[in-house]
Amino acid sequence: MEADAPKKAVVLVSGGLDSATTLAVARSRGYDCYALTFSYGQRHAVELAAARRVAEALGVREHRVVSLDLSWIGGSALTAPIPVPKNRPLGGADEDDIPITYVPARNMIFLSVAVGWAEALGAHDIYLGINAVDYSGYPDCRPEFLEAFAHAARLGTRAGVLGGDLRFHAPLSGLSKADIIHLGVSLGVDYSLTHSCYDPDPEGRACGACDSCQLRRKGFEQAGIADPTVYAPRGG
Amino acid sequence: MEADAPKKAVVLVSGGLDSATTLAVARSRGYDCYALTFSYGQRHAVELAAARRVAEALGVREHRVVSLDLSWIGGSALTAPIPVPKNRPLGGADEDDIPITYVPARNMIFLSVAVGWAEALGAHDIYLGINAVDYSGYPDCRPEFLEAFAHAARLGTRAGVLGGDLRFHAPLSGLSKADIIHLGVSLGVDYSLTHSCYDPDPEGRACGACDSCQLRRKGFEQAGIADPTVYAPRGG
Fold it and tell me: What count of CB pairs under 8 Å joins A to B?
């Protein structure tokens, strides 16, 4: 690699608002970005189309969509025929209230694959859009999880063992959803390309009532920015 | 669950000697075992057939073979067209000498999926056959990696956050290959069902010269137990 070649980063891109912003942050910091998306059996496959749009719009070196079915594991409304809760009061980081949309070990699995790819690419930086302010209360979105995972990853890889560095970046970690949107807009993110809803209608329109829609909608309101989301007409 | 129902354990089963022994240990401790095997693009798919034989012979409640192609990541002689080293001197735990058969982040990825399944099953125990005595020098086989990973897993899962326990067992960790074989024989493991070679011939016969064959062969010799492995005829 030439001395002035851009640094490489692996970026987890789901197609949602947070990961699009995270990708824009990594790009703005001068990284050559390798986007990683998972087709894991999520019910809302419209996510994958959004991930492709986002990766293309923001300019990545390579975009991998990895097939790893997690639906057989069960236990989540995102991968199993369990109703997605609607209009649930969101209280922030209540550790005793992990919602049914939590997918067991999802971030750990995705991060592990990211580590493998980073190692093979010679990338020392991994970006992900976890956030523990306006979030759904998933344990694997908390900073203490990421810190512990990073420690394990350094011990478990060639890069870490041989003294190379391996850094995990969660640039949205301490931001409110409104702050994230402001940041993304300042970096040129077109949020109309993104998809957040856990339970879109057959046309891919957002339900407006799941946790993810509520957080997104509130974020645009608080940011004072027009919400580009296309919502499904509300039923009775 | 009834009070006296057996405890559940998820066991990583590759089809090799170590994981077969580990499964036998978990069974001997009274666990209902859920075997987890990965079809990850390994060149020696004969491993998968061995995993099925082992799981069936030792008696598991369920056996999942998960497709997760890691060959696109590259960088390993087990998944890419890179020659498998033969007759390499094996010096034990030399951290500066991670062989080309190392698959980036493999154990981290496999363990993460195991954590997800354990969580959904309500299992609190995960068994894996890593070993840091007679081993190939993979960083993700070392006890310090497993300890750090376990800590991250407890922080990143519903089970861990809500106070449930999540335990990782590596019962072979401190054993020599000969000790592992003695243990397995005492527990009734039929090692003729297992497969260790990184580079079998088209008939699935072991090469006898890769790191894994060398460790296995030496193990049977030192244990004073007849080696049931079918080796390919040695070429010139």
Answer: 151
